[in-house]
What does this fold into?
Amino acid sequence: MKIRKYLLSVLMLVMCVAFSVGLAACQDKALTYELNKTSLTLEVGETDQLTVSVTPEQETDPAFASDNEAVATVSDSGLVTAVAEGSATITVTVDGQTLTCAVTVTEKTLPPIGEEYVLNKTRMELVEGATDRLTVFVNSDKEITPEFTSADPSIASVAADGTVTAVKAGNTTITVTVDGKELTCEVIVSAKPVDYTYAISEETLALDLGDRQQLSILVTPTPDVAPTVVWETTDARVASVDPAGNVTAVGEGSATITATVAGEKFTCAVTVSSAIEAEAAAVTDIAGKMIDLNAGTSEYGNLYWEHYYYDDGVTADKKTDGADYIPEDENGAYLLANGFADYKASFYWAAAERHYNVRTGVHSLPGTTAPVSVIVKVDQNVKAIRVYTGVWNATNTTALYYNGVAVSTAASFATGDDSLARLVEFPVSYTGTGTIELEVRITPSNVIGQGNCSLSAIAVMGGAPASAAPSTSVTATPGVAIVSGTQVDLTQVGNLDWLYTGSSDNTARTKAGGTNIIADSFTAQTTRDGGYRASFSWTDEESGAQPASSETGTRFSTGCLSIDVNVDQFTQEVTLYLGMFDGTAYMGVLDSDGNLIYNGEVLVSPAGESANCAVTFDVAAAEKDTLTFVIYKIGNNCSLAAVAVSGYGYQLSRTSAEIKDNETLQLTVTRTDGEEVTGTISWDSTNTAAATVNGQGLVTAVAAGETTITATVDGVELSCRLTVVSSAIEYEYALNETDLELTLGQSVGLKVTITPEPVVMPSVTWRTDDDTIVTVDQSGKVTAVGLQGGTTKVYAKIDGVEQELSCEVTVAASPVTATAGTPADVMGAGVDLNAGSETYGNLYWEHYYYDGAVKADKKSSDASYIAEETNGVYALKNGFADYKASLYWAATERHYNVRTGVHSLPGTETPVSMTIRVTKDVKVIRVYTGAWKATNTTALYYNGIAVAAADSFTAGTDSASRMVEFTIDYDGSDALALELRITPSQTDGGNNMLVAVVLLGGEPVTSTATTSVDFKGANEYTGSGNDPQTTFDLTQEGTLDWYYASYDKIPDEKNGGNSIVSDSLTVDGTGYDWAYSAAFKWTDGTAYPTSPIDNDCNDKGTNNTRFGNSIRIDVKVDQLTQQVILYVGVNDGTGYMSVIDGDGNMIYNGSVVRYIQGSSVHCALTFDVSATKADTLTFLLYKVGNNCAFAAAAVKGYSYTLSQTSAELKADDTLQLSLTRSDGEPVTGAKFASSSPEVATVDADTGLVTALTAGETTIQVTTAEGITLLCVIKVTAAAVDYVYSFNKTELSLDLSASEQLVIEVSPEEPLVMPEITWQSENDNIVSVDENGNVTAVGVGTATITATVAGEAEPLECKITVASPVTAGEATAENISGQHVTLSDLEREEGYETLYWQHWQQGGTNYMLNAQQYVTQSNVADQPGNFGDYKATMEWYNSAGNNLAWDSCSNGKHTAQNGSASVFVKLTADVREIRVYTGAYNATNTTELWLAGEKLATQSFTATDSVAYLVTFPVRLMAEKNEVVLEVRINAAGDGNASVVAIAVLGEGKAATTALSTPVKTEMTSDQNVYSLTELGTKDWFYPNYEGQGSDEKNGGTAINTATLGEKGQFWDYKGTFTWTDGTTWTANGVDSDNPLGTNNGICGSAVGVTITVAQGDTVHLFVAGWMSTYHVAVYDSNGTLLSDEQIATEENNVTKAYQLSYEVTQTSGEALTFVIYRYSSFGGNCSLAAVAVAGAQAE
It folds into this structure.
């Protein structure tokens, strides 16, 4: 055999070049030789193959030889043949190497007796390329020709001589056929071992800091499976390496990376360098500081800054000059979604763009550790980076990164619920060229709730520092605290200028002529408050209004306030009157160049309180400047009431003058502060031809003309305009009016005329002889103010003119006079707006309330007394909720203490004003008004003049309610308009209110009341709500009627009672209380609707109530009604009662429940009733205080009963009628009469009836009280023989069914049916009432009998009752310590869980997508939560918990010796009811009932708590659709029984939908991008687009997104999603699609979504779990579980994400619910990132 050999190095080089894999050159390696076998044992005639393998592999030419060919021979190819018994050695020579194999030959094995043929081997193990031989042994000398075949020649082939050759690894069978018989041998082929060569891809690396490069191990030849490589570094501070060989440069220096593979080690030397150095960062607390973002430092200038804020997205203010060091498109801050509203520092920049503490930053994603990241470019000019950052409910770590490596990390800082503000400054040095990018990364940790970190601004520092110094400085003196009652005269404090911000009319007040304060610069985002502790006054206001002496308002802001003030060298002080509520106020002062010349704390207020102070700044200015005073806060809000500027100036004694040509005028210069002028004054005249001036300011007129005289002192120029006139001119003076006639309130302007008109008008002074008749102001405006009228004079005195001018004014008397009464306190009063007085009737009324706007109830009237269109009250914007009187009107429109009025604008002195049209009929105006934290002055005005004003009254925090009555005298023929004005003053944030206006006049109305009540007092109870000491039996108390308001929130009432109108109970509020101090019981109530056990409350009683602001109930009374008793209470207040009859007359009003501060008073109110006819009384309980309560009402009295209401007599028979009273008292004064005395007569006094002849008559009885009762008498001529029978004698009923038995009478029904007695043979099987209504209550047979009075034999009917339910024997299993999964119960007999319901402390959970089998229960109303159930319940697929998985060990428990009931619907498919119940220190008896029949029961007893499963096997008769069973759980003993869960099992509906096992693909990186458009051809949904909204396929309908519910946000899915066919994203109307990708999701303990599928659809779910083992379960529309796959197992702090793809293999089309739920010891969560449905689109 010719062998070709190739050098291994040449072969490897050719492979490297051919495949361009960059492999390192391979070296030659020594050859090794190996024989496949070193020993053989063969039988005579057997063969075996020897082969030589060479490593590295190459062609060889071995030589084989046997040392004993008599025993064994060997061929040239290495086939050994056994010849005879003995031993031999086979020698193999190859390339000078010698290998040997020892051969042992044994005797030939013959086939077993009875078998003719046998193989020498039945199993053969070979390596690839090896051979062996099969031989057939024959049990005779017979010649055979065997046929050899291989089942898989690709694994092992076989030759005709039986030689087997191994081809490739695997298993196959060789079959040998001899004379039709088959023999087999199993062949196992293993792979030939391969020798690999390894090398590292790089032996040296030079990296820049942060660089990342991957090393790899090169393997030759290429293996099928990559080898395991272990990577290590000698210094992780320089270079780190991950398990994949990725090397990251993390610090400057050198390190060695080592890779270990197959026992060999390979190294790479790594060198890391960096051109950036960053020193340790400094962290500074900047709370309360103002930050000038343009400012540099003493070492460096300011290169660039950005300030971040939120305005419908994260936005930045930026420095506009210089290079842009922060690239916007890479700025991670812009990806955030909210603003940070509590940064405790204030920012500003260029003077024209100042920004104060309004935009305060952006924050990290709340409740997560996702960092805030900003890229900053750095060049050689940059020396420091300043980061203004903060934190709230978290820890903040701010660091500087280069290429992902932290080059400087600041000390972390943390806080709780109060935020922190810090400046983090990073000194940096860059020695490279061009620019590099550093990352500022702010990372939150230890996050509490929605905690986060904030970023407000970044400033880049470098270059030369600024050198300009401010020209103005200020010094602040400590703030002077202002206490209540402080008086501030702004005219004195602000001698240069002043500004008052808090005026009650919301307009700023300013000093006349003041120019220092720029009023328009005052920030406008403010609100007025009337509660400043100082009052401000002035006498020099710009507007000319009357001087104010008690203005106490201020302007406040929850952000900041600022005001600009002009200053110069004459300005001395600026004083600001500040306020702060619940926090600290700071101030910054900026000059016009933007320099911060002052910054500091100025005022601290106690927690929850306000503080006021005056802060004064001393000013030193070298020239004119404009200062900005900024007030900002850490806390609730800050306020600015006033600003005053003091200093001095120069003024000229005259600014204009007129003199004659022969006169002189002395001008002087003075200082405004009264100090002496020390500077030199220079004088000048612009026209010396008209006048000259000397050095002392003496002006001399020269000739007619004009000039300006100028005085200059300290650089200030003052001037006087001078007119010189001829001395020959004479002036004449006159008034425009000399005689005036005015009506009250009318005004006229008087003017002085001068002829000829002078160049300069002289000043005029006005006065009047009698200002009680008219007033005149200094403009000459005359106003008539005298109510009684009169005549007086008004005078004008002209400056420089000796004589006075006069005008005579006559004022007509007021056409109306009015007198105001003293405001009457109406607290607790019941006010009938329709009522008049003893003197006058009721003309009109209006009642005001707020319902989205101010509205009015009005009396129906033809006259319009109140002008709505001018009614100022309609302009108000709110309601008043604490008026302390109750108002009502016509009986059909009663209105009680709900709508209580409207109020004035809070904190202002703006009046409530309305116009009332008065005619001569109007005699009285009643005004129902009040006050809260203010003073109320109510007055009537005519033409703006007060004609009557009531005494003022004041209220604090407890409101005052008053009625002000004005007596009116007006006799005019036309209606007169009067203004009702209610003016608030001294408001401390309070207001006045207007509730109603009533006009009286005409004749009084006589009362129509026919009923009276007498309040007998309030009987208070002892005890408490938890331990009532008194129990009332309403059956005894309410002999006529009773009503109980709240039996477990359901009322009950007397059976047959008709006095109390139960539907009339009206409670202003929906409260229920279980703490009334008395209990109630009864035995004659109507059927209590929610109790199947007991219709009455006849054991220990109940003590529930209804409570609210007011309570009303109507009671019917008549002549027989004696008392009405009301069981009521009041909490922290006083209770009042009004009683109103059916005609609307108030027959009682007064205080009925006394006041105990902070406590409740419960009592019974008793009213004696006297009525002359039937009437309906309304009892209205209302309160001044917290609330009032109503428990019950009882009506006492008596009734009459006539012994018979009908009778049948024969002629000449007699009948004694008798009348009785229900209270047992004797009847007196009753009279009897017959309607037809010819038929029968009656004795008028005794009631003895005598029958005379055939016919009918009615006997009428009239009681002494006027009550009428009747008895119908039928008289017959002869006796009639009546025959009685049942309509049925046999009857079959279903359990709980009812039917009426009818007694038939012949020949005719008698006029009066005889008494019939009904009876059941067995009340436990069938019951019967007095009307023959039969009810099946148990299973069996019983006879109903009816005995007719006078008949010998009773009537009988046999009743048979069959039960529709079969119940097996109940079982009870102790499940303490077990874990019960309600959504996956163990099932027997092939049953399915049809339904389950669980009661726990937090509410009720029940099975999703299932028929509701629990129809009703009182479990949720049980008195307590059972917190120690000894079995743990868990579930998912719960509609009551939003699809969530949950578990708990609690339920509800019964009262001691109490019970709980659950009603379960039994249908034909139900087979089992499971009850999860327990007991604590009690015996639990759990029973199954049907319509009063106990079907099954089980009991168990426990001392400590115990958990049991009680199972009831049940089956419903086929002919019944459904019945309702009651599961009743009873407790006996000192403890209680627990109710935890119910499960219903049975034969469920077969699933009609089938799914494939989901294909699961793991996600590892958000670099995996999925197009929802391509995957979701039918529909897709993405639930969390950047934390701000969802998106879905346009037109998709398969996914029901509403089933997702409210879930948390998930930010770390390991895949990214894109789409191009979404609907418009609601949070971003600009772009509805997402081409860039997003990787968010929603998360929770479980997430579920419902999808409607069709045949062939594929559903893709993108799910993840963080720190959790989680599943995905799929349910069909019947709740049947189709699939439940565990997706991943929990791993601490690890997220595992997958794509799941389900194929719908069978369906008729239905909605499936996919539930992702977690089950994890770590807690964690599971998430849904996206859903996509692929399938054919609907046409």
